[in-house]
Design brief:
The protein has 253 residues and is of the alpha+beta class. It contains 6 helices and 11 strands. An 8-stranded mixed β-sheet has the order 4-11-5-10-9-8-7-6, sandwiched between helices. A 3-stranded antiparallel β-sheet has the order 1-2-3. Strand 7 and strand 8 form a beta hairpin. The radius of gyration is 18 Å and the shape is globular. It starts with a helix and ends in a 22-residue tail after the last strand.
Length: 253
């Protein structure tokens, strides 16, 4: 499906990617209350709301994250209720493969749970976006080491039917300008396409340098979107979920 065709299809999985992931290939990670889904808090910060959330859905979201708990939403469309506190609102873009030339990355190594301390340290230095202790479980992560130190990585985050999101693209300042990030993105995209899926990614609209780089690699704008972070009311809601959901087992923080 071309980018224009995908943009015209309001039921496309990329229109609400967290929901498509957690009701599809990533269903094993899903924590649910009513119509609200989320990843465990040590895996990814994203919460999925219905396309048109009602008051009961926001009540379920508050119950799921707990009093004062945070929700991070992709494909943000409507503001939360007045008793929620917004702590970030970022304009973003969603880019899809429109002819990315892919190839393995020489020298890249696969990263796994044993590498998480190094991955978290690299993320802390480079700030590519959310990466948590169990994010590595979401898909393939590749990295490059120099003199034993992890200096660049990229991997997969949301996995949807037929689509896989490239994320956590970061390069240490000491090796920037050497093409390591580009090589790793091409390598991750190569693995995605080898299994028959299509790579996509998100970026902040204000990060024009990164957007231009991705477009030069063969990614194309599918749509503009927004990301929202909000805190649930500090006072817990009373009573059972209006949607009939149950509280999930909460992952360790």
């Amino acid at each position: 499906m071309s980018a224009p065709e995908a943009a015209a299809d309001s039921t496309h999985p990329l229109d609400n990617p967290v929901r498509a992931a957690l009701t599809g290939p990533h269903a094993r990670f899903a924590e649910r209350r009513g119509r609200i889904l989320r990843y465990p808090v040590d895996v990814a910060p994203w919460v999925a709301l219905p396309d048109a959330p009602e008051a009961g859905d926001w009540a379920d979201a508050a119950a799921l994250v707990g009093p004062g708990g945070a929700v991070s939403i992709t494909a943000f469309r409507e503001p939360p209720p007045d008793d929620w506190e917004t702590f970030f609102h970022i304009d973003g873009v969603q880019l899809v493969d429109a002819g990315v030339a892919t190839e393995p990355c020489p020298g890249a190594v696969r990263l796994g749970p044993a590498d998480v301390p190094e991955m978290l340290a690299l993320v802390e230095r480079t700030r590519p976006g959310p990466f948590l202790p169990r994010t590595v479980e979401l898909g393939t992560y590749l990295g490059v080491r120099r003199e034993g130190t992890l200096v660049a990585m990229a991997g997969e985050r949301m996995l949807l039917p037929g689509w896989s999101e490239i994320s956590a693209v970061c390069t240490d300042e000491s090796v920037r300008g050497q093409g390591l990030g580009t090589g790793l993105v091409r390598a991750v995209a190569h693995e995605i396409k080898e299994r028959g899926d299509t790579p996509f990614l998100h970026a902040a609209a204000a990060n024009t340098g990164a957007v231009r780089l991705y477009e030069s690699m063969g990614f194309a704008l599918r749509r503009r979107t927004s990301f929202l972070g909000a805190l649930a009311p500090a006072r817990p809601s009373d009573g059972p979920s209006p949607s009939g959901g149950e509280r999930p087992a909460v992952a360790a923080r």
